[in-house]
């Protein structure tokens, strides 16, 4: 028997992983999209072969972006469903499933409930594992935000080989509300992209990279707290992410003309890292955070952080040496926490303490945790050289 064509033989230890998310860069740049990109990069560096299956407004398009193969499927119209407040991206399920069936993968890893339905159907056809990483909190509020979300998560819990939560708080919500035992794997921060910097601004500077259009991010509250803070620090600055939809931001009680506020395009990671580095404190006043990746990014740059003492934020800000928690959604309380962090930023030891805490949430740690999960589901011991599927495609 002739040996197989070398072009058809893959590394036995290399896993073919389908990552599924309904939207991606440059259309949307949120924490979830960063999480997917960082996970894919970590898999690529380790010699694995992830492929991202997503959608966009346009014709099907295949690209390879910084080494990652990306399939952008056309997004079927969903306006009628959205107007009736159904879970977004339900129309994307059939195309995601067809894309999974069109190629050979060892497992399918979805980061959105509708894509998890496609992955579970593909699992029934192929017998290969399906995983859902849920990027939110499945509590009463989260489960009733959209029609069909509760149904989707119940079916995902029953059909997926593993459900992953971003924090212990989110995992406890899975157990309490749905009876699902979710594993905890926190998302990772790129410690090379977000690193210690020395160009801190000479004037007190606050940054918040959260989307101002989203009401639960409480950017309006932050602007009010900043106005109080400027009574004591009149030269203080507040750097915020420029809204894609200014009208939606105004509807979320955000004052777009507030004095001292700088609206910047923070989509680019290098620009965001520079902004973290020049700031004295990074704030995340939002509620219902399943993790709070932007806080960890700021810590990696050596910048102390302020967060609302709700949901998973206290799991990240676990010490007064790296930041402050505020207990109530009150401008005065938030202003006091920000002022405390101004003093913390003046301590030469703060940078290293913040960086050390960020290292607890590195991309490497996150990727290794997912690889351990993948191999467990595929029946391979960690470090195994035995393939999960035939070598010849």
Topology:
Blueprint: E1 16-20, H1 31-45, E2 49-56, E3 61-65, E4 68-74, H2 79-83, H3 93-102, E5 107-110, H4 113-126, E6 130-134, H5 140-143, H6 149-159, E7 162-165, H7 168-178, E8 183-184, E9 205-208, H8 219-229, E10 237-241, H9 246-251, E11 261-264, H10 269-278, E12 281-284, H11 293-300, E13 305-308, H12 313-316, E14 323-326, H13 331-345, H14 350-359, H15 363-378
Parallel strand pairs: 1-2, 1-5, 2-4, 5-6, 6-7, 7-8, 9-10, 9-12, 10-11, 12-13, 13-14
Antiparallel strand pairs: 3-4
Helix pairs in contact: 1-15, 3-4, 4-6, 8-13, 11-14
Provide tags for this entry.
globular; 14 strands; 393 residues
Please summarize what this structure is.
With 393 residues, this protein is an alpha/beta fold. Helices cover 38% and strands 17% of the residues.
Structure write-up:
This protein is α/β, with parallel strands linked by helices and 393 residues long. Helix content is 38%, strand content 17%. It has helices spanning 31-45, 79-83, 93-102, 113-126, 140-143, 149-159, 168-178, 219-229, 246-251, 269-278, 293-300, 313-316, 331-345, 350-359, 363-378, and strands at 16-20, 49-56, 61-65, 68-74, 107-110, 130-134, 162-165, 183-184, 205-208, 237-241, 261-264, 281-284, 305-308, 323-326. The strands form two sheets. An eight-stranded mixed β-sheet has the order 3-4-2-1-5-6-7-8, sandwiched between helices. The chain has a six-stranded parallel β-sheet with strand order 11-10-9-12-13-14, sandwiched between helices. Helix 1 (31-45) packs across helix 15 and helix 11 packs across helix 14. It is globular and about 65 Å long. The two termini are 17 Å apart. Mean pLDDT is 90; it is low at 1-10 and 382-393.
